[in-house]
């Protein structure tokens, strides 16, 4: 039975609004880690809570924890609603490839880096969902493919690595159980309170696409990931 937390009157956020929140959160996290960290004023103590000091950089990184859970939620929603799963997967793969050099430049100031951007983690999670759907009546094949993808996520060194891969599967498995998902899934990621709050936002999803409808806005949203990393890299230099 639905409880008050997921009552219809609380479902006020469209997919576009969630995407916007996730993008702002990601930008906040990357700015704090790869640019603002260079300025002393960004790391000065603003206030202390329960003996823990808080700076602007720290607060921005805390807000940055909203991004990954929301993107995973939207990935699962996209998987469920897309009319062409092959095209959706190819789009994720192309975006992951295009984002690799900007990611390497932002993180390590080099073109080559033994670490992959988060889009590869999301792509593996998407492929895992496709496998579970395709071989739902063949559990041994599904298990073999999941183990293989888990190992790939481990040695690929993608953002969030194996924890991110398992998190995607857990969000997918609990996609019909909003309350359980919100309470259980944060245990996998750091800054659990922020992850909990981000999943709480997804409980307010109303199932609508929102303002990102035209191809132009859609590709602007895709382009935001690699473009903002390039901008931060040049700012840092």
- The tally of domains stands at 1
Order of helices and strands: HEEHHHHHHHHH
What portion of residues is helical? 55-70%
- The number of distinct β-strands equals 2
Distance between the termini: 54 Å
Anisotropy-based shape: globular
Oligomerization category of the chains in this entry? single chain
Describe the biggest sheet? 2 strands, antiparallel
Number of helices: 10
Whole-angstrom Rg = 18 Å
What order do the strands of the largest sheet run in, or round the barrel if closed? Answer: 1-2
Strand content: under 5%
Structural class: mainly alpha
- The unreliable regions are 1-6
The averaged pLDDT comes out at 90
Summarize the structure.
This protein is mainly alpha-helical and 237 residues long.
Task: Please explain how this structure is put together.
The chain contains 10 helices and 2 strands, in the order H-E-E-H-H-H-H-H-H-H-H-H. The chain is mainly alpha-helical and 237 residues long. It has one domain (4-236). The longest helix is centred in the middle third of the chain and has 24 residues, at 85-108. The termini are far apart. Mean pLDDT is 90; it is low at 1-6.
